[in-house]
C-alpha cells in the first residue's frame, strides 16, 4: 500500500461519507453536552472540502491536507473548525511536498496534528475533548512506526484503534474544556462528540488504505 | 497613530452591534466586524476574520476582540496565517466593554499595546488596578528622588455639566490620557479606564479629586481639569 495523493483524496472522501452517515449520531452526542451543532458542522465542512478538492486538484497529500485545513476553518463554524483546521494544517506541514508517505513521516504528521489541537484548544488528556482520541492515536502511531517492520497500514490501524478506545474512554469523564465544561458533573456519562468524530476521521484513513 | 480594531463574534448581530456601539464613542477609529459564518449562521469563519484583518492592515497595528472560545481559536488560526502577525494583538477581554475601552484608547491615539491593555483593564475594574499601578509609580519615584511617594500633581475640579460623569465624558478623559505618559486617578479609580470612571457615578456638583504621576503628570492634570471645567463641551 502506497500513501500518495490518491490515498489522501480517498481518505477525505471517506471522511465526508462518515460525517454524512454519522451526522445524526454526532448531533445527539453534542446535544447531550454541547450545542448540538457538531454533526451538522462536520458534515457541512467535509462536503465543502470535497468541492474544494475537486476544484483545486492537489498533487501531493500535503497539498490536499492544507486545502482541507483552510476549508474546515472557514466552513465548519464551531470550535471544531479551527481545531481540525489546525490539525490538518500541522499534518500538512509535517508531510511537506512528499509524493508518498513512509511510516515514520506518517507518525510525525499524526503527532503534529495532535500537537496542533493541543496548542489551539489548550486542552490536556482527560479533559474530555478530542485530545483524548488524538493523544493515544499519536502515541500508538509512533510506537507502530518505531517497529522496524511497521507499515503505513499498520500505523494507520494502530492510530484508529487507539482513537476509538480513547473516544469510548471519554464517557465517564467530567468535561474541563469547551462548551461541555459548563455542565460540570452532568457532562459525565456521555461520549465527547469531538473525540467521536476524531475516531471516525482516523478510521476513514484506514479505509482509504485498505 | 491609528490603531484599528477587529471584532470576532459567533453572531453577526453581536459583532455589528458592538461595532456600532463603539463607533459612537470613537468615530475616527476603523472598527471591522467579523461575526457569524459566511452563510449567515452562528459560528466563526476564518475567511471573514482574514478578510477583516486584511482590511485593517496598513494602520499602526490591529487589536482583535473575541467572544466565546472558538472565536478565540479562529482568531489565533488567522494570526498563524496572516503575512504580518507582529502588528496584530489579541485582547483577552469581555467583548463589549473591552471593545469600547479599546476604541476609546485608539481614538485617543494610544499605540497598539496600550489599546490592548485598555481592553484588558476592564477585567480589573478600577480601584484595585489603579491602586496597583499607583504602588508601581510610587516605588519608581521613591528611588533616588526627594519628592516622596505622593502624586506629582493633584487638583480638585467640580463637575459643571448637567449630566455629570457619563459615557462620553468618561471616554474623553480616558481617551486623552491613553496617549500621555502618566498614571492618573480620579477619585481613586484609574483615569485611563473609561468603565472605571463610569463606576464613579459622579453627578453635577460632585468634586473630582485628580492625582497624577509620571513625566506627563502636569499635562494630564491640565487635560482632565480643563475638560471638567469646560463641562466636556456639554450644557
TrEMBL record, chain B:
Its EC number is 2.7.1.121. Keywords: Kinase, Transferase. It catalyses: dihydroxyacetone + phosphoenolpyruvate = dihydroxyacetone phosphate + pyruvate. It holds the Pfam family PTS-HPr. One of its GO terms (cellular component) is membrane. It is an enzyme of class 2 (transferase). Homodimer. The dihydroxyacetone kinase complex is composed of a homodimer of DhaM, a homodimer of DhaK and the subunit DhaL. General (non sugar-specific) component of the phosphoenolpyruvate-dependent sugar phosphotransferase system (sugar PTS). This major carbohydrate active-transport system catalyzes the phosphorylation of incoming sugar substrates concomitantly with their translocation across the cell membrane. The phosphoryl group from phosphoenolpyruvate (PEP) is transferred to the phosphoryl carrier protein HPr by enzyme I. Phospho-HPr then transfers it to the PTS EIIA domain. Component of the dihydroxyacetone kinase complex, which is responsible for the phosphoenolpyruvate (PEP)-dependent phosphorylation of dihydroxyacetone. DhaM serves as the phosphoryl donor. Is phosphorylated by phosphoenolpyruvate in an EI- and HPr-dependent reaction, and a phosphorelay system on histidine residues finally leads to phosphoryl transfer to DhaL and dihydroxyacetone. This is Phosphocarrier protein HPr. It comes from Pseudarthrobacter sulfonivorans. The lineage of its organism: Bacteria, Bacillati, Actinomycetota, Actinomycetes, Micrococcales.
